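Box 4.2: Ligand-aware structure prediction
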Amino acid sequence: MSAGDQSPIRLLVVEDDDEVGDALVDVLHELGFQVERKARGADLLTGHSRYDAAVLDLGLADGDGLQVLGKLREISTIPVVVLSARDDDRTIVRALRVGADDYLVKPPRIGELAARLETVTRRAAAAPPDQPAVVVAGDVRIDLCARRIHVGGEPVSVTGREFDLVAALVERPGSAVSREVLMERVWGGAIAAVSQSLDAHIANVRVKLGRPDLIKTIRGFGYRWGH
Ligand code: CA
């Protein structure tokens, strides 16, 4: 999993400044990373699963990188190195608390950036998978790989979106998942029409599982899997 090996680290650089972004992509590519660049934080939220690690700018065209990071941490453990011109302790500490794996101030020493990226990626790869393939709650059994749900041993027929919704919830058992995160995950965007659809899908899933208490409503926020 290190740059230069047969399988290069798949890296997403989230940077809205074309000049800075393109220069980063070029130099990281030369160092053996497989690099793509996107300008918007939203691209990291929707595309994180295609990468091994991300470099995240904080001043982005579509918002504050720290907010993006906070949302990302509700859905993904992908290693993130924040790369920002902001060098005040408060921002750095906040970024690390929100879930950055590392923080570098612009302009970075490229060798150091590459080394830190390799370190956080190796650490993530060595960590035990935080996602079991099968989640069991009482007589409800959810196979995340096969995308199947059984209740009391009987298969339950759910739509793709209903399954995605369940998967997004069971990934964080006992933790509330915001409506926004669920809409991003399942529909790829948080708009008013989707908001109604989310409630309808939750209602359907509750009926199909026959265990309405398994998905708790967190008023004004979202939903939670489990008790
Ligand atoms: Ca920027």
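In the box above, the bound molecule is calcium ion. The first helix runs from residue 18 to 30.
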